[in-house]
Write the structure tokens for this entry.
Amino acid sequence: MSRFEGFAPVYDGESRLLILGSFPSVKSRQEGFYYGNPQNRFWRMLCSFFGENVPATIAEKREFLLRNGVALWDMVASCEVKGSADASIKEAEAVDLTLLLARAPVEAMFCNGTTAYGLLAQNFPSLLPVARKLPSTSPANPRYREEIWHAALGEVFGAEGAKAEFRQNR
């Protein structure tokens, strides 16, 4: 198995929600950014919540996240992995969330799947009260339901008007 490095976090001083994945898939590593597999439901789900089209470029995706107060990172900084399966992750080195959390006013954390949540629990158990495990957006997850994500996002960002107001004030 080869050792791979994850991506740097996307956040700024206005990020209210931190979404944590596990580790980039093969397609994401090839693209050089989070959720690069077009079959992954992440970008479609998040953009539909905010009433926007899925951005086409990495720069547009970063801008979309920051404009909407969303930070994005994976729990694994580096690991040995075969393919894209979380189950094949070995020798995982966890990211250090403390710097990001010191610089961004994160109110909530969503873990995109069981692996991300388990890694958070293992490495940062004190953060579990503000974390929520949501169904993985991976195309391999048959239990994914967009409405669960949208309900959780609504708890952080409120009604449509509140989201629009937040974006206008950035």
Notes: The mean pLDDT is 86. The chain is about 35% helix and 20% strand. The longest helix spans residues 146-157.
